[in-house]
Task: structure prediction
Amino acid sequence: MSERSERALMKTRAMRSAKICDRRQQSTAKLTHPIRLALARSFRSSFINNAPRFDRRSNRPRLTDAYFKAVLDGIPSARKGAQAIIKSWNDFGGNFTGDSCDVALHFNTHIGPFGSGDIDEEVGERSERASLVEDRKHQRAKILTLFVPLNSIRIRTFFASLGGVGESLGAEDALEWSVRKLAVYEVSERSERALMKTRILEMNPAKMLQTATSTTELTFSTIFLLARSLHSCFVENAPRFARRSHYEYTLDEVMLEEKTLPLLRGLISWFECTMSVDDNGLFVDSPDSAAEGQIVSNPIMSLAFLQRAAKFVTDNSEADEFTKSLGEKLSPFQIDATTGAWLNFDGATTDDSNMWANYPIHPGEYYNSFSDTDILQTAQKTSKQYSVLATGRPVEIFPAAVKAGVSDGQDPSVGFTAREIIDGMNAFLDNVMMENLLPFTPAGGIENVGVSRAVNEMLVVGEFWGDDAVVISLFDVWKFTGESATFSNLLTKGNLLVSARFDGKVGETTELKLKSYSGMNVVVVNPFGCDDVIILDGGGKEVDFEVEKTPKGEGLKFKPKIGELYDMISGSSC
Amino acid sequence: MSLSIITRTNHVLFFILGIWLLLVEFTFAIPIATWNSTLPSLPTNTLPGSPLVGNGYLGCMLTTEAWAVPFATANGARGPGDDSLFSTHYFINSNGMWDIKQAADAEHLGPTSTGTKIALGGLTITSSLFSADDSSHSFEATQNIEIGMVTDIHRSKCGEIATTTTVHPTLNTMILSTKFLPTPNPDPACTTNPVNFTISLWTFSQMQTQGGGLPPGQKTPLVFATNAGSHFVSRRTGDNSPREVRAVLSAFTDIMDETDSDSEIIVSNSVKLADDSNFISEFKTTISISANRPLAFTTKVALADNVDQSPASTSIDDLTLQALETAKNLNRDNLNRDNRDWWEGFWNASSISLPTQSKIERFYYGAQYILAISSPKNPNSPTPGLFGPFSSWDVNGWNGDYTLDYNFEATFYGAFSR
Result:
């Protein structure tokens, strides 16, 4: 372990022992930065003395009352900002009168989730969609969740608009929804830049406020500072599935302690604050938005995220009781009785659902390929139900189809076969791959490079196994194609580099090399079709191993030295 | 593996080991994309299908067909280099241009504007060698993802002009090396007149929207002119923006006289600023030489911007001059070494080989390449939106934005295991 990692670990232990992540304590602790403290001081009485208490019995989140009271009372210019917003909306062709329903329609029609660039094309559809929403509360939510920003101008605009229309919308709902949606948004480690303004604000908020040339800027700055100061677990305001993944693959303890855990804890706490409890004592996430703005109860995207986030925090830290029990207390994913596939939200039909029902499979990773057969089959049915491989959204459906596993050897109606996935990928590439090797989509297409994950995971998957090991399985999907494949140095979870060869003619793995950068125990699902296996270390010496059962068959467990190359071969009796 | 370590007693073993290493570690073929006719036209409001090269922040798109209104000229030519039908246009952009449009929108369109990715500018190389009625003209281009290089070659009965384009892996500098080789014993008509090469650095002078430019007075000002043989163009937010964000392209051309010819090389510079009827502003360097002598010149284009405001105390003017100086000091050897080292490290990190699935394998390596040239190495730089740095126009589908659901993270799905 590096010195830096060791320091981080010590810090973690100290934090755990002091239980510093108590939310109130942490909020206060984060106010020690002099600039932030100065900025927060004027509002301190508003939100510290009225410390957030979430009355789950009344199902009413109270978190944002203090924010808006402080903002609306404390910053007169917020109202000017609101007037500017209204004027600009009207200048933009709207007819805003201040009524929340009018705002909803206007917002959906003229702004929508994507911005002004799509107005001409989508105005009709948006109007129709908006008019279908009758429930006033849902409509409010829809306004806000549709207009969820990740780029900072949207954030700024959004918060500014709240400063003005908050009263008519219901301020507490407004901020609540905005932050929640930001919270469930997944971004990568590299996405910090996406919140540039936010970071500038963080670095020099005083300057930001001093130099703000518009009330919009000022309002945004203020609200955001308040939000950050109050709920400091919500450190970077964007969740990072990718950060979780980053840790799982690299075991970067510094990242874990400084970024991943605080973020996930904060996100869980946000949901803790906002979910209600049904008659069965289960948490209900309602109303929330399914993908692209549909307001529903218990969208599977959020449930899958929470399941995974809670497990991650519990597995990797001393989690609080709420987090530990969250997985059991969350509403279950809904399953269609006819198809056996997951549904997008409570009460949804198969027709209501879509590709996003795949969310627990990928990227949510609610389960993995070593999970119980029942879950695997549900995943496979779901993937097959909602994925048109040749023409669907490739970067979601291919990784999901591979992660669900293939149905070869089972009832072929359950899920895709390996051949279907390969043929589907070829069909997709036939349809869209351009000469420059980039698969075209109308909306950009850079994201399509992520389909490579499906390729990687057809060749090797690695998951954590117990408390101290990573288990890998080779060619899970690929072997059913009967075709040869080779890969070198693909990284699995547990920071393990794997190189292997599959001989399609004999249908077996013929070469396997491993190098661990974590030193975790490695369990290899025996890929040789033969019990006579030898593991050689870098010096050519045989390494002892144990045999363990895994859902995929016999696992060979050994303790690698960090950085040493191991060669696993089949013995002479094979 | 060095031959020196192969001994008589173990050379067979080493040979076998070498073959095995080749098979296990290096059995993959990084594909080269080729084009044998005109390239997909630019600008476009979608991702281009043309050759791409970049370093994760600065991106370059290549086309022979620049069609859009701002490029049209009275005589029907298709590019800022309006003296030839046969031009090669290198559209240049960066991930940071998204931020510029944000700030610009805040000023121009009011706070409800949501921002979008905008174009930056480009470089065009034209030559009078190729006349419009030259039926002998042919063109080919390659995108070599193994070394991050795009090559384009124009050929005719009079000669060949080949340009290789690379972007330094860490410096925001694009290098174009152009060589002209006259045909030995050419048709006399080929040598009647001198050959002109025009290198044009250009940008859009107004924000391009679906309805045309923004109202008068909201142009993106040009802030530099020519200076000591270097050219500058910029796009920036307006004077009243909450925060000024500016990107500047600077370019200069080195002529490498590698011949003993006595014929004179004439170099001239000119400026064509946009007016209300022309959205393009450009700075030109024209090289005029005898048609029977070879020529090589290198054009370097440096990008500077204040997107990340770091360091905050450095003005964009200073940043521009620093970038230009860095580019000037970057010699070909250093560039080749840096490029080779970076791409070798990138490709040697991992590999796959799917002998029976060449299309999927081809996609896989293409995906790694696109990831590499779209994702900044500097964690403080903007991460790619829907178009990465490859938007060529101010109006892009979904604004070239960071979008919800899964899009933003999806780019990196495969990055963890690779």
Remarks:
- Confidence is low (pLDDT under 50) at residues 4-243 of chain A.
- The two ends of chain A are 39 Å apart (CA to CA).
- The CA atoms of residues 160 and 216 of chain A lie 5 Å apart.
- Chain A touches chain B through 102 residues (CB under 8 Å).
